Amino acid sequence: MNLENKIVVVTGAASGIGLGLVARFIAEGATVIASDLATSLGRERAGALGARFVAADVSRESEIEALVKNVLADEGRIDLFCSNAGIGTRMDGLSGDDAWDRIIDINFRSQVWAARHVLPDMLERGEGYLLNTASAAGLLTELDSIGYASTKHASVGFSEWLAFTYRDRGVRVSVLCPEGVRTPMADQAPYLLHNAIGVQEVAETVVGALREERFMITTHETTLERFRSKAADYEGYIAFLAARRGQVLGS
Fold it and tell me: Is domain 7-221 classified as CATH 3.40.50.720?
């Protein structure tokens, strides 16, 4: 996809990767609609970059539906919808339903709802693009949050199904699986920062991958190397993770 003159929606756009994507897409000549729950900050930062801002809480399907309808009414179409909003919450196997519901709604169901509401117009036009932000944790895992690891795996699987199912109908799908990125979320997991990159580098990688219409977008060579090692020796991989978790978290 060439982003020039495209209509692009980015959720989770007030900070981090989302904000980086907004800036980079505008530099490519796209018309960008930035969305976030953080209304004041999101509107301020979107305006400074030249994006239109629409507030939305992606944990509610009704607000995603309203966002899509808003853009279709004002801009007439959505060429690229980036489901980027996400949270990271410390969780283990004893975590309750409230924690599970929140992280599933934001990290996974929001992508399901976005696809549900943007696909009809894209399929009718015979073109469109979905970019879902998952994580390297969706291919590997996350040491301190069962909820994060699980929802990011779900995001990869969901994106994969969309990619092969709607490809022949003109809809392209990419999934973004970054490793360490210097964002506010990463501050909660300092062990991820040893190889962290900036959001500008992530955005540059995304733009290149979209041009190639590449499904899997990674930011570090180590991601797919470790993914291959995991597949080759799953038992060894679990043993490695147990030891690594003890080293990093002390438990």
Answer: yes
Contacts of residue 160, defined as CB under 8 A and 6 or more positions apart, other chains included, come to 175, 215
Residue 23 identity (one-letter amino acid): A
Q: Check residue 108 and report its DSSP letter.
A: I
pLDDT tens string 31-46: 999 999 999 999 999 9
Per the annotation, the verdict on 148 as an active-site residue is yes
pTM: 0.95
The catalytic position among 148, 166, 191, 234 is 148
Query: What's the farthest any 2 CA atoms get from each other in the chain?
Result: 53
Local structure of 145: helix, strand or coil: strand
Q: Which two tokens stand for residue 231?
A: 């597949």
The tokens describing 74, both together, are 């004002």
The string of DSSP codes covering 214-242 is: -SEEES-HHHHHHHHHHHH-HHHHHHHHH
Distance CA(92)–CA(145), nearest Å, equals 6
CA gap 10, 239 in Å, rounded: 38
DSSP 66-91: HHHHHHHHHTS--SEEEE-------B
pLDDT in tens, 59-95: 999 999 999 999 999 999 999 999 999 999 999 999 9
